[in-house]
Design brief:
- The structure is a homodimer.
- Chain A has 12 helices and 15 strands.
- Chain A is an alpha/beta fold.
- Chain A has 2 domains: 139 residues, Aspartate Aminotransferase, domain 1, CATH 3.90.1150; 243 residues, 3-Layer(aba) Sandwich (Aspartate Aminotransferase, domain 2).
- In chain A, a hairpin with a 2-residue loop joins strand 9 and strand 10.
- Chain A is globular, with a radius of gyration of 21 Å.
- Chains A and B meet through helix 2, helix 4, helix 5, strand 9 and helix 8 of A and helix 2, helix 4, helix 5, strand 9 and helix 8 of B.
């Protein structure tokens, strides 16, 4: 064919980080079918969905089987019941939203990945290391990215500094952070919001891990004054309610968020009504149930379970004298590879020596080189086994 | 804020066609709360999901509630079971695909809307009138579109002609067509495939309505020799199995489909693994069930039911001497507005006089002006009532 393809795709790694890892793991499994792998790599939950959620979805499935209760196309931003439920959830953080500012989608990955569709060519600020989607989605459009390096010196919490002399930036922040587990304080987020307001910039705030927060840290950027005028926030049911295989999340586009009087919410609405047909009804009912008092209680039990795993992994790190962050307000442990090993070498080492799969820090950016991410979403038994195995080689 | 937004959004209509209609209808309902509307506008199904599908989804929901059977992240292109089921479905058309060429997504709207992400700036050929997503998704990227006008003279089936002197086009075809219901023959599709091969062009073939075909027409572009080298095909469970509110579809990227040795499938795979996290497990099991012998039989019953509606609408048209296409291999009736009325005037006329909602042809493109689309997805009772009402004013 003589058509042109999007050549920016050739400027990014051939495959998405977790696809690369999956391929290596599959190859290893094939060569070593008898070796049982323990996967503490991809941040995938393992606990089943809450009973409240299951019941709600069973009911919704049954409704879809009867003419009187069958539902066809949903409104693209979600049914009122789920938009209101999300807006209601924000009251827990002292944040007041109208349901119309909430756009329910099939998960943070999609909402983050597709957000650049509505933006022009702006200077982009992205932390490094960080969740690869922020970078890849902007590279695919040929956007110019500058990195906010996270490291031991700044506690993996980059702050605005005076090298940032421009205006109209698009700034990605994720707190609690994936992959480092570091979490911004109110004061630090206020610094970012003030910077954004001063420079006319947009903050894209990823709060996917807010349910793991321990301590007085902001769950939502909108807890910071002025944020409604400069930030879009993206949340997710994936880690909070175990929806990685069920798919639901939301984007908040406050009414105040506008460029030259044009509300960003109307642009996102236009994008979604053109390229998306809504979240399945069954899933929307499940998500609604996840936000009820009982649903949140059941999710919290699972989060506590995972954080129990995190504490055990953290203990191992302390025992071995390995530097790490995370594991307190985050299900991720971000550790410095022992013996100055490079990330992918440590990945291979753990895989080949003790059949434990983690995620090499370099996969999250050059700032991640020499670091490694372990996730605490496995079962307690698998986590304990992984720790036993790692003890022998660390 | 001082960020730049995507200004191409200002070059398209403020809201998506069906959003505009929904707004007008909501406004009318508010003014006239006592008037019962009959909606033959948006192509939304009304029959409940097949029992086979419901059972499969109930089972899947139950699995998600137990640790031993719980599923987290799906592979982005879909589980093997659904990719294989779709590849198996194609055998019905005499088309042989490998599961790896099938990419399951959350519906044709998303797959079509997001496809331009992987392409460069090519000359685009789009029929007019047609499903608005083809146009809007390309306009959002500032792509240059030329229209293939469908009209009475060409039976609403535009063909390549000698005004098309370029190469490397991206050509959108939809057959059976939305909104006109016209359907290409094997010979006609062969002409398009030959044209694409000769000019190094890519055909984007939308087969969302193939399950409605009556007669010897191609269900898949791949029934045409050579198509695997020049066409991507997008299918959907929405109309075939009633999944408008359940969300599942597929894109076929044949291995042969490449540009300078680079497979388009690898680019789509990269796009999806970056910006999409898969279809919910529950929905994938429902879709798998829809493709079993029993599932297909149950879907066929529903299709027959809808086509019964279509026949009644067609009868009314004939009775009133109104020119129309569709209704034979398509759930849509595409009619010429009576008395030379313009599309939106006829929309208002039907809404205000007899509270019947249809879709104005002009919403599908300038070539649709003076035409109107009625859909046969309503209940038999609603359809009969709508016909009774329309009889009084046509």
């Amino acid at each position: 064919m003589k058509i042109k393809v999007n050549e920016h795709f050739f400027e990014i790694k051939e495959t998405y980080l977790f696809s690369t890892i999956a391929k290596k793991v599959a190859a290893y499994s094939k060569e070593n079918p008898d070796k049982k792998l323990i996967k503490l790599g991809i941040g995938d939950v393992t606990r089943p969905l809450a009973a409240t959620v299951i019941n709600a979805m069973q009911k919704a499935v049954e409704e879809m089987g009867r003419a009187e209760t069958f539902r066809g196309y949903a409104p693209e931003p979600g049914y009122d019941f789920i938009r209101e439920a999300v807006a209601g959830y924000y009251k827990n953080f002292g944040v007041s939203l109208s349901a119309g500012e909430v756009f329910v989608g099939d998960g943070a990955k999609s909402d983050i990945g597709n957000l650049p569709d509505i933006l022009g060519d702006n200077p982009i600020l992205i932390p490094d290391p960080v969740y690869p989607v922020y970078v890849d989605s902007n590279c695919m459009l040929g956007r110019k990215i500058s990195y906010l390096y996270a490291n031991r010196e700044n506690g993996f919490l980059p702050m605005p500094d005076d090298t940032l002399t421009g205006e109209g930036y698009v700034i990605y922040l994720c707190s609690p952070n994936n992959p480092t587990g570091a979490v911004y304080s109110h004061a630090q987020l206020k610094e970012w919001v003030d910077f954004a307001l001063k420079t006319g910039s947009l903050i894209v705030f990823d709060c996917a891990y807010e349910a793991f927060i321990n301590g007085d840290y902001p769950h939502s950027i909108y807890e910071i004054e002025g944020a409604k005028s400069c930030a879009v926030e993206i949340g997710s049911f994936s880690k909070m309610a175990g929806f990685t295989g069920t798919r639901c999340g939301w984007s908040v586009y406050p009414d105040e968020l506008a460029v030259n009087g044009k509300k960003l919410s109307s642009m996102w609405s236009r994008r979604q009504s053109t390229k998306f047909n809504g979240v399945p009804y069954i899933v929307q009912r499940g998500a609604e149930a996840a936000l009820t008092k009982e649903g949140l209680r059941e999710s919290h039990e699972n989060i506590e379970y995972y954080m129990g795993n995190a504490r055990l992994i953290a203990e191992l790190m302390r025992e071995k004298g390995i530097y790490f962050t995370g594991g307190v307000s985050s299900p991720y442990i971000w550790l410095e590879c022992p013996n100055g090993m490079k990330s992918w070498d440590f990945f291979d080492f753990l895989l080949e020596k003790v059949q434990v799969v983690g995620t090499p820090g370099e996969g999250f950016g050059v700032g991640g080189e020499g670091y490694f991410r372990l996730s605490s979403f496995g079962s307690r038994e698998a986590t304990e086994e992984a720790i036993r195995r790692m003890k022998t080689v660390l």
